[in-house]
Amino acid sequence: MFSQKHDLSSGGRPILFEPLDVPGKALERRATGLAEFDRALGGGLVPGSAILMGGDPGIGKSTLLLQAAGRIAKAGGDVVYVSGEEAAGQVRMRAARLGLADAPIRLAAATSVRDILTTLHTMEPPALLVIDSIQTMHSDTIEGAPGTVSQVRGCAFELIRYAKESGAALVLVGHVTKDGAIAGPRVLEHMVDVVMSFEGERSHQYRILRSLKNRFGAVDEIGVFAMEGDGLEEVANPSMLFLSGRDEPLAGSAVFPALEGTRPVLVEVQALIVRLQSGATPRRAVVGWDSGRLAMLLAVLESRCGLNFSSAEVYLNVAGGYRLADPAADLAVAAALVSALADRPLPKGAIWFGEVSLAGEIRPVAHPGVRLREALKLGFDRGHGPTGSAEKVAGIAFEGLPSLAKLVDRIVS
Questions:
Q1: 62: annotated binding-site residue?
Q2: Please, which residues bridge with residue 174 across strands?
Q3: Do the strands 253-260 and 263-275 form a parallel or antiparallel pair, or are they unpaired?
Q4: Is 15 known as a binding-site position?
Q5: Is 60 annotated as a binding residue?
Q6: Which of helix, strand or coil describes residue 73?
Q7: Is the confidence at residue 20, as pLDDT, over 90?
Q8: Is 59 labelled a binding residue?
Q9: The CATH number of domain 24-236, selected from 3.40.50.300, 2.40.420.20, 1.10.3470.10, 2.60.40.1930
Q10: 223 is in an annotated binding site
């Protein structure tokens, strides 16, 4: 039996329950002025929502948010941008480079959550509140330095509560660990409404804004940007970024229509096979795909199709620095491997998609029609995939492949 001082069944104030069909004002999303950002959000910023954006250092998180903040401010929305990492003068320099020096943004350099919330309560709630970053914030009611688990959790809770009560859309920038996970407590991702990842290689100009969690829209939607001298430019047709554009096909190259949320993106899968002398240990190198899945696919090709990769080095690359997670990439990877092994180019204007089982079967995948229509739009006229899974798309011929053995016969014969 609990003692009276630990009994929480009394002493509080009653809460009010409401039916689901209670009439109320519908929440209207606010456009950020960046169509690719809005796409990843599911249509724009929801009032009172809390968004957590993570990404590698220098990838462009602050640039993207400053561009969005500037456009919202120029459209008449009140925007507060609080930087805990840079001085106000440094943020102004970036804004000038982005052509946003005249944007009416309320800018401050501060790290005390108490000071930030005290100031916000003296003014009308802004349309957008950006905190860059949550790991630099601290609360004087919590022990520990900024960035510790307790500080990050406590500061985020107070800022999220303000957003819910005031209706301001809150964006928290989050540091990431070397493994790519957002630093701090995992509960932070549960507390917010939207978790976004800003990805890309600093050696490549493209950036992908990916939605990992979204209470107000579809998950796995992406927005694509290109880093230019004057900031991030939207890429309306990302497929053009990841295709080589060569006129004649080369051995070991296959085009795969990846699906990111509802958006199809055509990418090029490249394979290289190097025969070794006996006794040498063959190497397996993968860029942009799961190395474990490559090992499985090589084993299936050897076991079910009689191909020999054990005495060869295998190199696999997804062009443009793109990272594939779609299981439908199996068939494109297999086609590139077989093409490289046989030193025979794949048919020109062809795409390949399908999941491969351990039995060597090519299994159906989601939305084949969407993939084919994107390929047709970019000039491809042939599709190869699972038998009986693709809807007919006028203008593109589809050939069903029931197994990897049929794929090998199709390429080698």
A1: yes
A2: 54
A3: antiparallel
A4: no
A5: yes
A6: helix
A7: no
A8: yes
A9: 3.40.50.300
A10: no
